[in-house]
């Protein structure tokens, strides 16, 4: 009874020593920040409503290298803000309200290489970057910058990458003036500003390789004054302010990629002689106002670009005939004709003049037909993109000429049926994407011609069943995606033949169970995702065919988010998964795991049962559940509304490093919870209801003294009592060091006394004497004359006449007849000896039953007999240290009515609750829990506990 609350004097001594050291040791948990669970050098202070930066980062250690302050409300960076964090390498301040950066704000950050100030309210860039002599990346996108001081970037001698996109910059000269001091600058991003003209003062940016002026308002492309000898990539797309006539790219001799997409440039003005190094050009969406696109002009340009390899030519309203024209004037390796809405039929060898083509994009056209001649000359094509078109099917041999094809994308087409003859001859195909089509059925012949396929995406279709070994020809397949179909049934050995499959995605289907040998043959499967299906079990009963038994190589298994909750996990469900490393069971509304389920998982390193939101009512984890998980490193039980955890439950987890109980309803953390966790480095109890009382004294002292275990946000934990603003770490526990043994002895003694006195007075006058006498006798016998009794019944059922119907129609059939093991119940109308005194009968029934099952309702609380039954049973429980009482709550009972039972509940502060559920789907779990509570025939003394089932 409450044994975990006793503190042996040895520990008290240690705590006292700890208290003395308190002032010397740094708390290993901060107020607004937390270290990253796998690397103490990374600190996150995300979404903490931080306004005062100095304050927020004041307590984080100097060795921090990465600091993430995203999504706060910081307005000002004061001078020397990071003076104590001289080891910072990476600093993220995006998504704040920063408008002012104090002079020398970053001083001392000599090792910083990355600084992110995206999405703030900076209007001008002044001399704020002093000291950042190793900075390589500076992101200032999405601010309100209009002005940059000439010398602002002078200290940034190592800067390579500067982004100023999405600001209000109009003056390009101003930018150049500032960046010309950057000897290493390679990337300059000015996307989405309001620059109208280029600079005409002679300038040179020798190191620059990438320049983006996308989405500005340029009226000219005359770079003649700007020498960019090493520029390889120029993006001037989406400048659609007016038609550009003035183009000069002579000063960009190394230009390889030019993007003019959507820019109103006259192509005649592009002089090919200055573009002799061009490899890739994007001239999409050139709807020149008034003029129709003149393919002759395009061809003229292309003819004079001999080494051009890739052309992007989207949204240009060309038809099948135009393609031939285009094909005739260049020798491309890659052509992108996506979003050309006039392309409907391709059946006339359109690409005959492009035998060198390796990659062809025809996404989002209106294509509905191709013939077996369409691709006849594309012998070298390796990738073909036909997504988002109108194909319903393909004629025989449609793709057969594509002898070199490796990737084929057919997603988002209204294909209902796969004609396997269309794909005959695709011997080299490795990747096939059929996601988002209308496929209803696949069968054993569907994939007969894909003998070398490695990746097959069939997600988002309408497939209901898998039968007849549909994948048996895919001997080399590694990745198979079947998510978001309507799979209800997967027949035996449906995956037969997939010997090399490594990844199988079955998420978002309607699978509810597994046939025997379903996964037979998947010898190399490492990742299996079954989340968001309808897998549910009603009893822990051993399955005749454990579903994963054949998956010898499985490393990761995901069973999250089953429709009704996975409910009662069968005992041998995970049998065979001795190599499993990661298991995800969260987001299930009901999970019941009683003993042995995890025993096969000896190599598990990561276990996540988070987000059940179920509370103690629907998430049940047995004490012995985790004992075999000797290699477990990471355990997450977040967001579960857990109110209590059984002591010792985690004591086998000797390798556990990261343990998160974030967002539950725990009030107390005691030492026994963390016993034997030798490897613990990170213990997260943020967002619980920890109270500042003596029960938490151990946690308070341990957490503020431990130098090995990081406790996220420890210094911000509030006391969860009404009317207090104080913090857990400030809780004054001196009064707790009182002789606890005596206190507890006195308390338990007075409790018994109160129990008796209360019973005495609360009983009606006539029966009170007898009542009291029986209570006294029970207490006396229990305390002084403990005898070994033979049990006749598994449980004595205590209930009132009003609940009789429920007992006989639900309880008795479920426990005595339904399922294994069968229990023997003692019911007064049925099993009491006639003629014997009723008190004697009750005492006998309790003594000869292993447990007492109290069926609690409002009527029950008003019944004197029931009250007596509870009292007698609780006396037995109190002295025999056995969890003999199981409370079933049939209806919601207001707290005040429970007052006399409240004391019972207080005796043990780790109750378990579930309601008799109105919802029929929840009942299997309810019964499983009752059965489990009744089933512990041998109870160790230490584990004695009161089980309250609401
Ligand atoms: C931030 O907090 C520090 C002390 O923690 C204080 O000295 C400073 O004035 C505060 N700054 C602002 C802007 O409130
Ligand atoms: C910083 O935090 C934001 C917000 O959670 C996240 O998106 C981002 O990836 C983080 N950055 C790093 C480097 O961890
Ligand atoms: C930068 O890091 C190195 C180690 O990588 C360290 O020796 C040096 O002192 C640091 N510089 C600063 C200014 O902190
Ligand atoms: C850029 O090109 C010039 C020649 O124009 C060359 O001397 C220099 O090393 C190059 N700089 C970089 C950073 O590549
Ligand atoms: C292709 O170009 C040749 C000359 O280079 C010309 O004779 C032929 O008609 C062109 N074909 C098409 C379809 O434009």
Structural topology:
Blueprint: H1 9-21, E1 34-36, E2 39-44, H2 53-57, E3 66-68, E4 76-77, E5 90-92, E6 100-101, E7 114-116, E8 124-125, E9 137-139, E10 147-148, E11 161-163, H3 172-179, E12 187-189, E13 203-204, E14 210-212, E15 221-222, E16 226-227, E17 233-235, E18 247-248, E19 257-259, E20 280-282, H4 295-303, E21 310-312, H5 320-327, E22 334-336, E23 345-346, E24 359-361, E25 369-370, E26 383-385, E27 407-409, E28 431-433, E29 455-457, E30 465-466, E31 479-481, E32 489-490, E33 503-505, E34 527-529, E35 556-558, E36 567-568, E37 582-584, E38 591-593, E39 606-608, H6 615-618, E40 619-621, E41 634-636, E42 658-660, E43 682-684, H7 697-705, H8 740-762, H9 765-784, E44 793-798, H10 804-817, E45 825-826, H11 828-831, H12 838-848, E46 849-856, H13 858-862, H14 864-880, E47 885-889, H15 899-907, H16 923-935, E48 947-949
Parallel strand pairs: 2-3, 3-5, 4-6, 5-7, 7-9, 8-10, 9-11, 11-12, 12-14, 13-16, 14-17, 15-18, 17-19, 19-20, 20-21, 21-22, 22-24, 23-25, 24-26, 26-27, 27-28, 28-29, 29-31, 30-32, 31-33, 33-34, 34-35, 35-37, 36-38, 37-39, 38-40, 39-41, 41-42, 42-43, 44-45, 44-46, 46-47, 47-48
Antiparallel strand pairs: 1-2
Helix pairs in contact: 1-7, 8-9, 9-14, 12-14
The protein binds 2-acetamido-2-deoxy-beta-D-glucopyranose (5 copies).
């Amino acid at each position: 009874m409450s044994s975990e609350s006793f503190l042996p004097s040895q520990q008290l001594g240690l705590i006292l020593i700890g208290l003395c050291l308190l002032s010397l040791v740094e708390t290993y948990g901060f107020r607004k920040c937390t270290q990253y669970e796998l690397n103490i050098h990374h600190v996150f202070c995300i979404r903490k409503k931080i306004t005062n930066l100095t304050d927020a980062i004041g307590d984080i250690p100097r060795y921090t290298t990465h600091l993430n302050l995203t999504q706060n409300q910081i307005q000002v960076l004061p001078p020397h803000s990071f003076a104590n964090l001289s080891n910072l390498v990476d600093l993220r301040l995006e998504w704040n309200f920063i408008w002012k950066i104090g002079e020398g704000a970053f001083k001392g950050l000599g090792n910083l290489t990355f600084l992110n100030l995206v999405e703030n309210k900076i209007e001008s860039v002044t001399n704020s970057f002093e000291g950042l002599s190793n900075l390589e990346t500076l992101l200032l996108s999405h601010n309100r910058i209009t002005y940059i001081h000439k010398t602002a970037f002078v200290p940034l001698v190592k800067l390579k990458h500067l982004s100023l996109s999405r600001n209000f910059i109009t003056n390009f000269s101003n930018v150049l003036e500032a960046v010309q001091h950057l000897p290493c600058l390679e990337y300059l991003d000015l996307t989405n500003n309001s620059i109208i003209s280029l600079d005409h003062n002679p300038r040179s940016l020798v190191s620059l390789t990438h320049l983006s002026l996308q989405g500005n308002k340029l009226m000219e492309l005359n770079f003649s004054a700007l020498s960019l000898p090493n520029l390889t990539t120029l993006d001037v797309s989406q400048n659609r302010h007016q038609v550009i006539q003035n183009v000069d790219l002579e000063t960009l001799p190394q230009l390889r990629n030019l993007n003019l997409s959507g820019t109103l440039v006259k192509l005649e003005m592009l002089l090919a002689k200055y573009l002799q190094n061009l490899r890739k050009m994007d001239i999409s969406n050139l709807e020149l106002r008034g003029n129709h696109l003149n393919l002759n002009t395009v061809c003229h340009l292309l003819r004079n670009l001999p080494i051009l390899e890739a052309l992007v030519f989207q949204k240009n309203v060309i038809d099948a005939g135009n393609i031939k024209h285009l094909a005739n004037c260049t020798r491309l390796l890659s052509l992108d004709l996506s979003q050309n809405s006039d392309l409907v039929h391709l059946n006339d060898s359109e690409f005959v003049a492009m035998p060198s083509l390796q990659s062809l994009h025809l996404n989002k056209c209106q294509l509905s037909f191709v013939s077996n001649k369409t691709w006849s000359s594309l012998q070298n094509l390796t990738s073909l993109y036909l997504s988002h078109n109108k194909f319903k099917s393909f004629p025989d041999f449609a793709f057969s000429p594509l002898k070199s094809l490796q990737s084929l994308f057919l997603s988002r087409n209204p294909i209902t049926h796969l004609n396997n003859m269309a794909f005959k001859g695709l011997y080299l195909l490795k990747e096939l994407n059929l996601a988002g089509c209308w496929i209803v059925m696949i069968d054993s012949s569907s994939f007969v011609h894909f003998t070398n396929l490695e990746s097959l995406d069939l997600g988002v279709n309408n497939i209901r069943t898998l039968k007849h070994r549909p994948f048996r020809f895919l001997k080399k397949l590694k990745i198979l995606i079947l998510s978001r179909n309507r799979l209800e049934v997967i027949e035996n050995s449906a995956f037969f033949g997939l010997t090399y499959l490594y990844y199988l995605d079955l998420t978002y289907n309607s699978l509810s169970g597994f046939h025997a040998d379903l996964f037979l043959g998947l010898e190399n499967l490492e990742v299996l995702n079954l989340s968001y299906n309808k897998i549910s079990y009603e009893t822990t009963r051993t399955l005749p065919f454990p579903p994963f038994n054949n998956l010898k190589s499985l490393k990761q298994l995901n069973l999250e988010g089953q429709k009704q909750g996975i409910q009662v996990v069968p005992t041998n469900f995970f049998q065979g998964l001795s190599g499993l490393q990661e298991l995800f069971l969260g987001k299930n509304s009901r999970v019941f795991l009683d003993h042995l389920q995890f025993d096969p998982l000896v190599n598990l390193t990561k276990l996540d049962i988070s987000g059940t939101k179920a509370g103690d009512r629907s998430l049940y984890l047995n004490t012995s559940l985790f004992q075999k998980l000797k290699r477990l490193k990471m355990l997450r039980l977040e967001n579960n509304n857990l109110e209590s955890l059984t002591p010792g439950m985690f004591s086998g987890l000797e390798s556990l490093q990261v343990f998160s109980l974030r967002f539950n309803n725990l009030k107390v953390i005691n030492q026994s919870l963390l016993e034997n966790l030798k490897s613990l480095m990170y213990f997260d109890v943020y967002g619980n209801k920890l109270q500042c009382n003596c029960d938490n004294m151990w946690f308070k002292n341990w957490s503020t003294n431990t130098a090995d275990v990081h406790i996220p946000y420890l210094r911000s934990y509030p006391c969860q009592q009404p009317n207090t603003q104080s913090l857990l770490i400030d809780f004054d526990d001196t009064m707790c060091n009182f002789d606890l043994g005596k206190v507890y002895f006195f308390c338990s003694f007075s409790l018994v006394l109160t129990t008796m006195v209360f019973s005495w007075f609360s009983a009606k006058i006539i029966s009170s004497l007898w009542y009291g006498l029986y209570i006294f006798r029970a207490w006396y016998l229990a305390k002084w004359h403990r005898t070994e009794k033979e049990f006749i019944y598994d449980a004595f059922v205590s209930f009132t006449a009003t609940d009789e119907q429920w007992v006989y129609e639900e309880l008795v059939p479920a426990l005595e007849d339904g399922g294994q093991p069968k229990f023997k119940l003692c019911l007064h109308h049925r099993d009491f000896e006639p003629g014997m005194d009723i008190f004697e009968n009750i005492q006998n029934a309790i003594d000869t039953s292993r447990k007492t099952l109290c069926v609690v309702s409002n009527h029950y609380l008003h019944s004197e007999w029931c009250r007596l039954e509870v009292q007698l049973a609780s006396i037995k429980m109190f002295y025999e240290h056995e969890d003999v009482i199981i409370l079933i709550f049939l209806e919601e009972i207001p707290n005040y009515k429970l007052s006399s039972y409240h004391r019972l509940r207080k005796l043990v502060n780790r109750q378990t609750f579930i309601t008799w559920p109105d919802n029929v789907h929840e009942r299997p779990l309810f019964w499983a829990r009752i059965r489990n509570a009744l089933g512990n025939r041998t109870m160790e003394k230490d584990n004695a506990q009161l089980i309250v089932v609401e």
